[in-house]
TrEMBL record:
GO terms for molecular function: peptidyl-prolyl cis-trans isomerase activity. The keyword Magnesium does not apply. Belongs to the FKBP-type PPIase family. It catalyses: [protein]-peptidylproline (omega=180) = [protein]-peptidylproline (omega=0). Its EC number is 5.2.1.8. Keywords: Isomerase, Rotamase. Residues 37-123 form the PPIase FKBP-type domain. It comes from the Bacteria. Transmembrane segments: none annotated. It comes from Cryobacterium frigoriphilum. This is Peptidyl-prolyl cis-trans isomerase. The lineage of its organism: Bacteria, Bacillati, Actinomycetota, Actinomycetes, Micrococcales.
Amino acid sequence: MTDLNAKPEIDFPEGPAPEQLEIVDIVEGDGAEALAGATVDVHYLGVEYESGDEFDSSWSRGQTINFPLRSLIAGWQQGIPGMKVGGRRKLVVPPHLAYGPAGSGHRLSGQTLIFIIDLRGVS
């Protein structure tokens, strides 16, 4: 059973990084559905696909974070709509839907990223 009150753990992926966005529901929520353009309240964990190194986590800060979807990376804009409050989803985001190709200026450019996202609220 998945404990949605605990920081998630990510199993180290096998094989090459995917070239397209992968969306996997770990827990399906039963609350309000996130729509494109919504503002979402989430807990999340992000790791690099190749190394498994954590690069960001709202869990580490001890509080959820509220974002308008339109201000987030394309992988989140495409991967969160359809998710329901109370759910936990894994997104595997290739570079072109994250921070662009290597050399784009962001420290994560060129990286495939894995996020575990818990949807806590939508507005």
